[in-house]
Write a structure and sequence with these properties.
The structure is a single chain. Strand 6 (141-142) and strand 7 form a beta hairpin. This protein folds into four domains: 6-128, Response regulator (Rossmann fold), CATH 3.40.50; 163-314, Rossmann fold (3-Layer(aba) Sandwich); 317-385, Helicase, Ruva Protein, domain 3, CATH 1.10.8.60; 405-444, Orthogonal Bundle (Arc Repressor Mutant, subunit A). It has a five-stranded parallel beta sheet, sandwiched between helices. The chain has a five-stranded parallel beta sheet with strand order 9-12-15-8-16. Helix 2 runs parallel beside helix 3, helix 6 (150-163) packs parallel to helix 7 and helix 17 packs across helix 18 (427-434). With 448 residues, the protein is an alpha/beta fold. It has helices at 14-26, 37-46, 63-73, 88-97, 109-139, 150-163, 179-188, 207-215, 232-235, 251-263, 289-294, 300-306, 323-337, 347-355, 361-375, 394-401, 408-422, 427-434, 438-444; strands at residues 6-10, 30-34, 51-55, 79-84, 101-105, 141-142, 145-146, 169-172, 197-201, 216-217, 229-230, 240-244, 265-266, 275-276, 280-285, 309-312, 344-345, 380-381. Bound molecules: adenosine-5'-triphosphate and magnesium ion. Magnesium ion binds next to helix 7.
């Protein structure tokens, strides 16, 4: 037995209200009648209806105005207009604004009932479609990772498969393809989820700093080390350690890393006590490690330790079918974040998005859409809102630092600056994060 459907009848003709209510109730509908538009609108705001039947010509607010008010409140409401024979052009106008159908008075009972049935069936279909759409988009989503392409679907199954284990994972893929997102998804779907996820960008740090970040240091280990500082290995205990840009680790650090992975213990720099940490390792790189090994820049034995379970994230241009889904996703997020009422992307703009080759992958798409939302003054993103020029933030510079010809001193300075910026210029906090004293920070910043 399906639930009783509710119809709101708005008409200033009392005889029509009484007769029609009676007819509809006989058919099993629940009917609420209102004698004018204002009363009708008030009812709509306080209880749910499946259908509204409203007269077109009424004292005060007429049917067209009521239609607009209802649509403003609930764009999905199904409405049938009732008109006198003379006002058919207005009825057509009503349909343009969003009425589902119209009926001219006088009409037979059969005609009235048929139109109501048709309207209600249409409403059910639309609801079903909506439900399917939501279900579909949820299925294509894995902890906020979006993708319906076969390539991404298989990434989802691998994540599913490995999340429960402790196997070391090596993520590969171009910049912006979602490696960190996947690393987090694995952690937050694993039994370690309530423990820390600790990330470190290996490319951003000069060798000595990288080691002190990874293994920590004891007080006095080097000049300026004012306190003991735990390394990321320690901080990640019971959780997951994410080594980003692993392809950029210098060979000497690779040896030390290998030792930790083999023996599962390590010492802080300047320390003798051996520390063990139980953590799950996920590494990522946008380099081709095979090539790095060939070139003698990456150790084969370390590679095998890290790469128990490889996951490759395909470039966005290799899975163009994901672009519309991702574009819509980022549009919704940006619109909400910036309180804009942008809710669609024109066909021409979408075509352009799909055809572009996305060297910066999903991150670039995210930025292009965010800018488009900001530029857009109406509800639809169009070609004129799209611009494909990437700016390189400071972090990007850091990421590329090792591959560039920066000296160790310049990198140390850049790193200190970045940490300082992260703390909004608060040097005390920056010292704490870096585990160094004020004077050393000043030295690194080039202020002394
Ligand atoms: N499939 C996806 N669905 C939704 N958002 C995504 C997807 N892939 C990437 N993103 C988003 O794109 C941005 C870049 O992703 P992420 O930082 O994971 O890339 P990356 O591969 O680590 O890049 P890099 O090599 O430059 O560090 C992030 O904001 C991330 O949330
Ligand atoms: Mg990354």
């Amino acid at each position: 037995m399906s639930k009783q459907q509710a119809i709101l009848l708005v008409d200033d003709d009392k005889a029509f209200r009484v007769l029609t209510s009676g007819l509809l109730e006989e058919q099993g509908y629940r009917v609420v009648a209102a004698a004018n538009a204002a009363a009708g609108l008030a009812l709509i705001k306080e209880q749910p209806f499946d259908l509204v039947l409203t007269d077109l010509v009424m004292q005060g607010t007429n049917g067209i105005q009521l239609l607009e008010q209802i649509k403003a409140f609930d764009p999905k409401m199904t409405i049938i207009m009732i008109t006198g024979f003379a006002s058919i052009p207005s009825a057509v106008e009503a349909m343009k604004i969003g009425a589902f159908d119209y009926l001219s008075k006088p009409c037979s009972n059969d005609e009235l009932l048929l139109k109501i049935k048709k309207a209600l069936a249409n409403k059910r279909n639309l609801e079903e479609l909506d439900r399917l759409r939501t279900e579909l988009s949820e299925r294509y989503q894995f902890s906020q990772i979006i993708g319906k392409s076969p390539a991404m679907q298989s990434v989802f199954s691998i994540i599913d498969m490995v999340a429960g284990s402790d196997a070391s994972i090596l993520l590969s893929g171009e910049t912006g393809s979602g490696k960190e997102l996947v690393a987090r998804a694995i952690h937050y779907n694993s039994p370690r989820q309530s423990h820390p996820f600790i990330a470190i960008n290996c490319a951003a740090l000069p060798e000595t700093l990288l080691e002190s970040e990874l293994f920590g240091h004891e007080k006095g280990a080097f000049s300026g080390a004012i306190r003991q500082k735990p390394g990321r290995f320690e901080l990640a205990n019971s959780g997951t350690l994410f080594l980003d840009e692993i392809g950029d680790i210098p060979l000497s650090t690779q040896v030390k890393l290998l030792r930790v992975l083999q023996e599962k213990t390590f010492e802080r720099i300047g320390g003798t006590q051996s520390i063990s940490s139980d953590m799950r390792l996920i590494s990522a790189t946008n380099k081709n490690l095979d090539q790095e090994i060939q070139a003698g820049r990456f150790r084969n034995d370390l590679y095998f330790r890290l790469n128990v379970m490889p996951i490759h994230l395909p470039a966005l241009r290799e899975r163009k079918e994901d672009i519309p889904l991702l574009a819509q996703h980022f549009m919704k997020i940006s619109a909400t974040k910036n309180s804009k009422s942008v809710d669609s992307i024109s066909e021409a703009a979408m075509k352009m998005l799909v055809e572009y080759n996305w060297p910066g992958n999903v991150r670039e798409l995210e930025n292009v859409i965010e800018r488009a939302v900001l530029f857009c003054r109406n509800a639809t993103i169009d070609v004129s809102h799209l611009s494909f020029h990437e700016q390189r933030p400071e972090m990007q510079l850091l990421t590329n630092a090792r591959s560039s010809r920066m000296t160790e001193k310049e990198m140390t300075q850049l790193y200190a600056r970045t940490i300082l910026n992260e703390h909004n210029g608060n040097k005390k906090l920056a010292c704490k994060t870096l585990g160094i004293n004020f004077k050393t920070l000043q030295k690194r910043l080039g202020e002394l």
